[in-house]
Amino acid sequence: MVVTNQFGAVIVAAGRGTRMGTKESKQYLTLAGQPIIIHTLQTFAKLAFISEMVVVVGEHDVARLQQMVSDYQIDKVTAVIAGGTERQHSVWQGIQHMKSEWILVHDGVRPLVTPEAIATCCAAAEQNDGAAVLAVPVKDTIKQVNEQGVIIATPDRKSLWAIQTPQAFQRTILYAAHEQAQKEQFVGTDDAMIVERMGTKVVVAEGEYTNIKITTPDDLPFAELLLQTRQQRQEGEKLV
Question: Site positions for Positions MEP for the nucleophilic attack, renumbered to this chain (predicted)?
Fold first, then answer.
């Protein structure tokens, strides 16, 4: 996929990660010798079409991440700022610090996203009215269940996709959606949701199943395995 515009990236890493069961926030846990968030930032920083990055973290982690960014020399990070009470509020704060006309929003704890997937998402947004998300088709049968645990519906699996990040938007669209959501005190589960409710078309760009979000203890060793496998494959390709 060819990306024709320059994009800014809002990297959201303000969560505490209680499901991980560790004292340390999940974005700072070590993956292959360095913090998860650093893997994420390095992937975006290497892309020629990424012109700036704003990282949104917890209020008490601003200085800590600023030091990490300096230590790892991630020059494209233009600001490290404190987030809000909800993820949506953190993204809104990040948007305020961006100059780019096109914006990506990405979870800091998705360190295995590939350059190819990021480019696919950006190109899809450029070619489809300014809004696109990465997603993968659902493999399992999904059941809708009521409060009593009784199955009430089985949606057609062919129409179901698991949404990932990054999500790519033209700045004017994302800004307007967040502004409207704030006025109406609406909190969505992702940025696509608040854009959708404005009536804006959001397209799906097919991503990769390896673009996992590190959320629970089982995710970290799986991420280690995926990263190791990816590195071994890349080394093998160099030898061919």
Answer: 157, 213
